[in-house]
Design a protein that fits this description.
Layout: H1 12-15, E1 34-37, E2 40-48, E3 56-60, E4 69-73, E5 77-81, E6 86-89, H2 93-97, H3 108-117
Parallel strand pairs: 1-6
Antiparallel strand pairs: 1-2, 2-3, 3-4, 5-6
Length: 129
C-alpha cells in the first residue's frame, strides 16, 4: 500500500494535479484509465492517491517494461479525458522508464527522490486532443 502521508515540501508542485488537467477531485476514480506519454501509451492506472498536494498514480506498464509498475506524481498529468478513460502525461516513455524504481512502501525518502526526478518540466502542454 502506498504511504499517503505528505512528503517534503519542495516536491509539492510535482505532487498536485494541475488546474487545467481536468482532475475533478477525489470523487474521480482514475483506476483502470489508460496512460499515454508524449510518445505513446505506457499502461494503465493500478492505483491512485487523491490527497491534496500529495497525489500519485501507480501505473502498471504491462509488457512495456517487463510488467513493472511506475509511480507518477500528479503534477506530470497534462490532461484527463474521461470519455476516452485516458490520462495524458507530459513525459516521454524513456523518462518514465528511467525514473526511480517503484517502491511499494513509497516512504518519504522514495517520494523525495521521485519528486526531485519529476520536478523539472518536460515541455509545455501540447495540443493532443
Amino acid at each position: 500500500m502506498v504511504d499517503r502521508s505528505p512528503g517534503p515540501s519542495h516536491c509539492k508542485q510535482a505532487e498536485a494535479y494541475r488546474t487545467e488537467s481536468g482532475f475533478a477531485g477525489a470523487e474521480m476514480d482514475l483506476t483502470g484509465f489508460s496512460v499515454a506519454a508524449v510518445d505513446g501509451d505506457i499502461g494503465h492506472v493500478d492505483e491512485a492517491t487523491y490527497q491534496t498536494g500529495s497525489s500519485y498514480l501507480v501505473v502498471d506498464t504491462g509488457p512495456w517494461i517487463f510488467g513493472h509498475k511506475v509511480m507518477l506524481p500528479a503534477g506530470v498529468v497534462e490532461r484527463i479525458d474521461t470519455a476516452e478513460k485516458k490520462i495524458y502525461v507530459d513525459r516521454t516513455k524513456d523518462q518514465i522508464k528511467n525514473a526511480p524504481e517503484f517502491d511499494e512502501r513509497a516512504d518519504a525518502t522514495y517520494r523525495d527522490r521521485l519528486g526531485g526526478y519529476y520536478s523539472e518540466p518536460y515541455h509545455t502542454p501540447d495540443t493532443r486532443m
